[in-house]
Amino acid sequence: YYAHDAWQLLVACVLMSRVSSWECKHNTISAFFAKYPTPTAALAAKPNDVLEVIRPLGLFPNRFRSVVEISAKILTEAGPLDVGPDQERKIYGVGEFGIDSFNVFCRGDLSVNPGDKTLQSFVNWQRRRGHEKK
């Protein structure tokens, strides 16, 4: 759903982290993007309003901080967005899965070997189809 847009992809990754219920993730993330469709809308939101939307996911202070940092980075980054584990590219709350997802879906980088089994299956499938960058 969200792989076409770096902001939505990264926000979805931090919202779905540590939540096992697909239905809970899907419903909550869909509701979040319905109410806050852009980084600007997310930054303008009152924390209590966001809490009401993402409460089912738990860990509100951490998730909210991540959404704010992702949104601010998207809006202020000079040049193309770059996300990684090192200090210069790190965004609070964006871990290995978010970084790997960003590299695969936003950059088209299939040289990544993700730790997530489902993402790795997607990468392997794309490689078999000949979609790896030369």
UniProtKB/TrEMBL annotation:
Top-level taxonomic group: Eukaryota
GO molecular function: catalytic activity; DNA binding
GO cellular component: nucleus
Keyword line: Nucleus, Signal
Locations listed in the record: Nucleus
Signal peptide extent: 1-21
Coiled-coil stretches noted in the UniProt entry, renumbered to this chain: none
One Pfam family recorded for the sequence: HhH-GPD
Biological processes, Gene Ontology terms: base-excision repair
Domain HhH-GPD: 20-100
Protein name according to UniProt: HhH-GPD domain-containing protein
Native organism: Micromonas pusilla
Taxonomic lineage of the native organism: Eukaryota, Viridiplantae, Chlorophyta, Mamiellophyceae, Mamiellales
